[in-house]
Structures are given as structure tokens and as C-alpha cells.
Write a structure and sequence with these properties.
binds zinc ion, Aminopeptidase, two-stranded antiparallel sheet, 10 strands, alpha/beta, 17% strand
Length: 290
């Protein structure tokens, strides 16, 4: 779904689900509201973030499906726990599309009124099709823009200007999308766990260059038992400057990167149902393992 559809679905969700409220984390570089949902009203607070990478838009569809299903499952039990009870004990903060400008490029290309249109098309090698664009509206890879091994990453990657992927930005938190999210995390010391959703690989990254929280391995194993996804260790440049790295290293919060589904990015929307089936229980039960 694109940003417009996300807003329409958000409005419908808020009307239909009394346990859910909807607002904005902040505004993207090009002025799009970044929708943020709150489901449940309990003391165990968790954060789920989708679509750092524009071409991984499927993670937004996945998180919206999770929220949409929450209402119909209210009277049911998952893993022996009543869903209604979960909503009493847990608050799920859900940001399905952290990067709405990048997603807009992927779906619709760069619009004529975009103030940096020519620069962005040049970053994309002159190509007006953006199906493989990962970055935000000005070519910064949001999942390398966190304040973690920033200078080391930039030096090692050698990517020092806007690009479809892997440019970390001029400085940590230079991008509004990341700055708003870091601000939210800093002001929510009660948050107990973070899931960062990406595609693909059916794996769970649970540490950051050897660092992790005391509970990280246990939780990763519980996630594996529910989903069949395997805990793995991120190697090299992919374990620098991401949300998971920053949460573990700077905030001491158990954080996990969930690589959803398998295949070649962008995964087709036809995989959504299967991926949701694999991950549904994990998404509901994750807070109970913290
Ligand atoms: Zn990704």
C-alpha cells in the first residue's frame, strides 16, 4: 500500500477498533505524516517498526494486517493467552511505514513538484523507475542513520553522497524520520522491546557486533519456536548504524531485526498471507517474552 492508502486504512482502523488509537510520529523530509498506532493499554510497552527500506513496503502491509486482525481476534486465545487480556497488559506502538517518501518513489516515481527531483533521479542513475529504491526522499538509507559506528560505517562503505541504498547521511539522526523515532525512544524509557521489520531471509538478528542484552538469546529462541525463523548474527557493514544496533548499544533495550519472508526483494504482495501466517503469533506474543 502507498502512503495514501495507509492513511485511509488508518482512519478505518481507528473507527473499528476501540483498543487502537492513531496519530503521527512526526513528518518525513518531504512533509508526509508518519503514522503511528497504539494498540492496547497495558504496562508492557513494545515498538514495531516497518519500512525503513522503501522497497520493503511489504512490512507495512504486514503490520497493518496485524492491527486489522487484532479486532477480530479479541475474543480468541493465542498461545494460551487471551487476546483481550493481552490488550490489558500490553501497549503495542506500531509504525508501519517509517519511510513514506521512499515508498512514494517506489510506487509512483518522483513527482514534478518534488523540490529535489533532478538530484534524486541522478542518484537513481537517471532511471525514473524506483522499484529498487531503499533510501528516504533524499537518498539516505535510514537504517544506517542511527548513532552507532557512524564514522566507521561511512569510511568502510565508501558511500558519501545520496544513493538508492547504503548512504548513511551526513551525520547521525540527520534525517527527520530517524530523529523523530530516536526522540520517541528517548522519551519512552518504559519501552521493553523493539522489533524492526525488513524483508527478506526468514532470520532474526538479535545482536550488534557481539553486543546484546542479557535476555536477547532467550527471546530470539522463543521467536524461533513460534515462527520457524532462525536467530543469526549480522555480519560486517549490515550491523552498523541500524535501529536494532542503536537500541541494544545505546538504550540497552532488547531489539531484533526480523527479516520477513524469503525470495528476492521486493517480495511480491502475493507472499503477504504466508508471511503473516508465519509471524502472527510472534507479533502478538513478543511482549510476553520480555
Ligand atoms: Zn531492510
Amino acid at each position: 500500500m502507498d502512503h495514501k492508502e495507509l492513511l485511509a486504512r488508518a482512519e478505518a482502523l481507528e473507527k473499528s477498533l476501540p483498543d487502537l488509537s492513531f496519530g503521527y510520529l512526526g513528518t518525513s523530509l518531504l512533509g508526509r505524516g508518519i503514522p503511528k498506532f497504539t494498540l492496547g493499554h497495558g504496562k508492557i510497552e513494545v515498538l514495531y517498526v516497518g519500512t525503513h527500506h522503501a522497497l520493503e513496503w511489504l512490512t507495512c502491509d504486514l503490520l497493518i494486517k496485524f492491527l486489522e486482525e487484532a479486532g477480530s481476534l479479541r475474543e480468541k486465545r493465542i498461545g494460551g493467552i487471551s487476546v483481550a487480556e493481552l490488550f490489558e497488559c500490553v501497549t503495542y506502538h506500531v509504525i508501519p511505514m517509517l519511510n513514506p517518501d521512499g515508498v512514494e518513489y517506489v510506487y509512483h516515481g518522483v513527482s514534478n513538484d518534488n523540490p529535489i527531483k533532478d538530484r534524486v533521479i541522478a542518484m537513481n542513475g537517471g532511471n525514473k523507475t524506483f522499484s529498487f529504491w531503499q533510501a528516504n526522499g533524499r537518498g539516505v538509507d535510514l537504517n544506517h542513520n542511527y548513532n552507532d559506528a557512524f564514522a566507521e560505517y561511512r569510511a568502510a562503505s565508501g558511500i558519501l553522497s545520496g544513493a538508492p541504498t547504503r548512504f548513511a547521511g551526513e551525520e547521525p539522526e540527520s534525517e527527520p524520520e530517524v530523529a523523530y523515532l530516536c526522540g520517541f525512544l528517548r522519551h519512552h524509557p518504559t519501552l521493553r522491546g523493539v522489533l524492526s521489520l525488513h524483508t527478506q531471509g526468514r532470520v532474526i538478528y538479535y545482536q550488534s557486533r557481539g553486543a546484546m542484552c542479557p535476555s536477547s538469546i532467550r527471546i530470539a529462541k522463543q521467536m524461533e519456536a513460534r515462527s520457524g525463523y532462525h536467530p543469526e548474527i549480522a555480519e560486517g557493514l549490515s550491523s552498523c548504524g541500524g535501529l536494532t544496533d542503536w537500541c541494544i548499544r545505546s538504550l540497552g533495550i532488547p531489539a531484533f531485526t526480523l527479516e520477513c519472508g524469503s525470495g528476492k526483494n521486493p517480495l511480491p504482495i502475493s507472499q503477504l498471507k504466508q508471511i503473516y501466517t508465519e509471524l502472527r503469533d510472534l507479533l502478538f506474543l513478543f511482549p510476553t517474552w520480555l
